[in-house]
Amino acid sequence: MTVEDPVLKLSLEILKERPLCDSCLGRLFARMGYALENWERGYAIKTLLHMRLVSELRRGADVMEHLKSLARAHKPTRRFLASIGVHVQEEQCYVCGGLLAGVEKYAREAAVRLGGIEFDTFVVGTTLPKEVLERESEIVKKYLITAGESIKHEVNRRIGRELLRLLSGKRVDKLRPNVVVRINIATGEISIARNPVLVGGRYLKLSRGISQAQKLGSVRATLLEKLSYIRELFGGVEHVVHAAGREDSDARMLGAGRPLVVEVKQPARYKAEVAPLVDDDIIFAPEGPVTRDEIRRLKERSRVSVKLYRALVHSERPLAEEELARLSELSGRVVTQYTPRRIRRRSPRRKRTRMVYEVAWRRVSGHVFELYVRCQGGLYVKEFVHGDGGRTTPSVAGVLGSGLEVVELDVLAVE
Ligand SMILES: [Zn+2]
Q: Per residue in 143-183, pLDDT tens?
């Protein structure tokens, strides 16, 4: 054997043991000679080997076994040998079994399936038969291949490239793709997952009896229902709302509103101009697309953010201005609350503590006063006012020594 070039020498050594298709041979040397597809590299190696071996045979060298090995996976060599009366059977590629030859067909199928969706970005993931991966790693280990590319990488790359060609104007986005194309090469199954559309914004609630999502008791309508126009706009199957905390359904949400993300699941399109919603109950001001991280930040922030509430309070006994002045002692206090009676059926019994930063008031009449509370997010404000039968301490009712009832509650600011 007089083939001296290291790539040719190693290739011949491998081909003597295992027939490999052009792609699977070329892939072993993928990092040698960029801008060549693996099959081009593999085909070139086989062509060179063919030329060397044929000229050596003509010089009288004993290379017939080498030629027969090469011929199993190289048509020109089979043709040459046939011309001198030696017939060799074509054999399937040891690693991929011929799978790689037409792998682009999956891209064509996927492109058809993606036809009904208006999207910008995608990513392709493939599942290869386990045996293929095992046989590949066997070759890589045995011949100490260090400049190769993995078969999975080649398949993803080739299908991705073909999809890019077929779907002009689309981009690959590995981090946050609109759609995820999954192809199981073993079974031929193609699945397409449409990632949700996330629209960020803020909402104001101008009237009472509106909840975020649950329609219980005196709730007339939900924010969720009112925002269904966004689901329709994107042609989604379902939508949910993620807000930075929530107010009671009978409380208004005023001021600059509360941050909210509308998630539209399985949308049919990804680009649409979301118009603001303004009706008698709700204002929703969209602020543009957001990422899932934003939902997480929203939820985290709602626990530490500062809220400003206004409550209209009715007192059992008339209160004088001097008595209300006692409320200043509640500013800067830590309030301990056991799960309120009104929600105990829905929540487990827990103790929580929240800061009340500032309390201010305005006497309206003997029995009625307005209360302003600046506090940490998560304070049960109604309970802070009436004391919830001693479950919340300190409380406004406790300080004033009178039974209190919250007539109206508004959130004025979510800071
Ligand atoms: Zn192959």
A: 988 888 999 999 999 999 999 999 988 999 999 999 999 99
Of 15, 40, 20, 17, the C-alpha closest to 30 is 40
Domain extent listing, the chain: 6-83, 103-193, 197-303, 305-414
Tell me how far the alpha carbon of residue 5 lies from the centroid of ligand 1, in angstroms: 23
pLDDT tens readout for residues 18-66: 999 999 999 999 888 778 899 999 999 999 999 999 999 999 999 999 9
Phi-psi region of 353 (alpha: psi -120 to 50; beta: other; left: phi over 0): beta
Place of tokens 């979510």: 414
User: 32-36: which pairs have CB atoms within 8 A and are 24 or more residues apart?
Assistant: 32/7, 32/147
Task: State in Å: Cα 72 to ligand 1 middle.
Answer: 13
CATH of 103-193, one of 3.30.870.10, 3.30.70.260, 3.30.2130.30, 1.20.1050.10: 3.30.2130.30
CA of 24 to the centre of ligand 1 (A): 4
Integer Cα distance of 222 and 215 in angstroms: 7
* The predicted structure's pLDDT at residue 28: 94
Q: Prior bond to 394 cis, omega within 30? A: yes
The CATH label, of 3.40.190.10, 3.30.70.3190, 3.40.50.620, 3.40.50.10490, for the domain at 305-414 is: 3.30.70.3190
d(CA 254, CA 205): 6
Instruction: Based on the residue annotation, tell me whether 248 is a catalytic residue of this protein.
Output: yes
The active-site residue, picked from 22, 62, 248, 293, is 248
How much distance in Å is there from the Cα of 245 to the middle of ligand 1? 56
Q: Is the pTM of this model over 0.85?
A: no
With beta carbons less than 8 A apart as the criterion, state whether 251 and 410 touch.
yes
Distance 134 CA to ligand 1 centre (A): 13
* Structure token pair of residue 158: 């080739």
